[in-house]
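--- STAGE predict ---
source: upstream dedup step, 1 unique chain passed
mode: sequence only
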Amino acid sequence: SEIDWAGKLWQPIKEQLLSNVNIKMSIPKEKPYSHISSEVIPGAIYALSYSVRGGVASVSLETFGGEETKRKVEEKIATAPAGHPLREATVAQGKKNKHKWAWSLSTNIDKGDAGIVNWYVDTVLALYRFMEL
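--- STAGE serialize ---
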């Protein structure tokens, strides 16, 4: 079930991320989402989520600072090298919170557990290293 998978999914992702960068990852107990707070973008998080029903895994950089923060993030993304995942991210404004902006990447979760863990780790590291380090 979705809840069982959540409990097994986030821990290996967190362990692999921690072996590469020093992060603090919030893992709600047995929930299909998690996040890492940004250390350089005030009020921003790297959100990880999935939908078993929809068959989609997502990683997004979410900011809550309105247009000014959006502009700063877009300026940084514009410096990303060709082929960087952020160049392919879709950007959307929050439906309820108009100060929220999210740059999202997603994939189908038909890769098997190891494949999806690797996708999350690789995607989060690409975003995090570029934006934070």
